[in-house]
Amino acid sequence: MTTPGVRAAGGVAAAAVAVGVASLVGAAFGPEADVRTAVGSSVIDLTPGPVKEWAIATFGTADKLALAVMVLLTIAAIAAVAGLAETRRRPVGSIAIVIAGGIGCAAVLSRAGSTGADIIPTLIGTACGVAVLRILQSDRLDGPSSETGTDPGRRRSLLTIGLLAAGAVSGVAGVVISRLASSVAGDRDAFALPRIDTPAAPIPESVQPKGVELPSWVTGNDDFYRIDTALSVPQLSRSEWRLRIHGMVDREVTFTYEDLDRFEVVEKVITLTCVSNPVGGELISNAVWTGYRVKDLLAEAGVRSGADMVLSMSVDGWTAGTPVEALTGDDALLAIGMNGEPLPIEHGYPARLVVPGLYGYVSATKWVTALELTRFDRAQAYWTRLGWSARGPIKTASRVDVPRSGQDVALGPVTFGGVAWAQNRGVRSVEVQMDDGPWEQATLGDSYSGDTWRMWSYAWEARDTGFHTITVRATDDSGYTQTPDRADPVPDGATGWHSITFAVK
Ligand SMILES: Nc1nc2c(c(=O)[nH]1)N[C@H]1C(S)=C(S)[C@@H](COP(=O)(O)O)O[C@H]1N2
Ligand SMILES: [Mo]
């Protein structure tokens, strides 16, 4: 007889071998055959919008790690129950593994770019999982072994542990091998950005206030916020990359990376913001982008009248819907460089859209491969389908960076500061309120352009110990001052003033 613990562990071992073998065999088939990513991506796609928002709000940029852990724990829990339910006569656990394998195959087939052959690793993994469960149930393990003298329970436990370890090792090996095999890091390293025909205006030092520790006005690539639904970062080489412009156009065109050479190379400084950014949040960064004007590319295709939306699509099937007029202006880019380097892979290598004035979910498609000219009354993009607003102009907002929440301030003079943004319009003024006092003008760093954030500082004298609150609000160049009314990020961006309470000691 086996104890329930050993039987449950047997189920987990079977699942580990199934997933591990599928991952290892999958490494030979390429990213589309990766059942782990396929299931995770399907979970992301099928998760209701509010749960996704909760996940982003709770886990932030660690949301994908949290998902991976949850998926693995769920598989392990189901597998443990399946192991308990498996008996020699009623192979309930084996049936559960077959069903799970079927779901895995369906997930693989549902991904953009997969083919029938891509389910082979999952099928092999499933078969191995069933085999493990049957072996662990086998009578032969129960027979007393006169030669070795080990008791059957111990033998079964050891075998279970061994198989669990084998599953885990092959799973990790599969992930590592497929990452190395598909990575475009080498392709990126070998790429030198083209010479810039029209550089951005130089960035004066005066954009960055002195005497206060604010984020760098230009965000380094490593510090730049990252948001996307891609469970594994798409690996698209320059030679594989295509940009197809189709839909309501005079003539469909498809550009290769080399075709881009005949367009003017421009450089723009643009601040990106995520619609999910809560009041005071960190989902905003500023970079110098190198690329091509989207309007130049669209002109080759000829936008037909009546088209009011560009539905851009990523190689992994993610979509954004952007108003045509936002892309036919001078400032929208098909970006290939970020702060003087090729785009980092997680920021869209080899090409992405960067559009000033619009939240990323309606404009900033990374790993972009298609632009479809269509209409807002005909097409919906990824987040719009989940209840977010179809149009996403960035709202005027501001943030206190110093003091940080929970930071103490010493008695005497102190300089506070932060950032404010109203992309497209520009920030005209920033005001600060200490406790319930009057609104005072903050000192502004120089404005670079309406498309970039603006930094502010505020000198204050801490005269008495105890708790104080600093609140900030910005006014944009259209004359609009931020509303105090608190709104959640859903459906079109948060509103409300940011405050920090701090202790003077
Ligand atoms: N392919 C793809 N592009 C995407 C997304 C995505 O999920 N997939 N997310 C968008 C969102 S919501 C934002 S805010 C920006 C973030 O760009 P970053 O990660 O380079 O900061 O990318 C946009 N582009
Ligand atoms: Mo976003």
TrEMBL record:
Pinpoint the Oxidoreductase molybdopterin-binding domain residues.
231-382
What biological-process GO terms show up in the record? sulfur compound metabolic process
Keyword annotations for this protein, in alphabetical order, are: Membrane, Oxidoreductase, Transmembrane, Transmembrane helix
Q: Which regions span the lipid bilayer?
A: 65-85, 92-113, 119-136, 157-177
SUPFAM superfamilies tied to this protein: E set domains (SSF81296), Oxidoreductase molybdopterin-binding domain (SSF56524)
Report which superkingdom the organism of origin falls in. Answer: Bacteria
**Molecular function, one GO term:** heme binding
Q: What InterPro entries has UniProt attached to this entry?
A: Ig_E-set (IPR014756), OxRdtase_Mopterin-bd_dom (IPR000572), OxRdtase_Mopterin-bd_sf (IPR036374)
Q: Which Pfam families match?
A: Oxidored_molyb
UniProt EC number: 1.8.-.-
PANTHER family in the cross-refs: SULFITE OXIDASE, MITOCHONDRIAL, SULFITE REDUCTASE
- Protein name, entry field: Molybdopterin binding oxidoreductase
Give the species.
Answer: Mycolicibacterium gilvum
State the encoding gene.
yedY
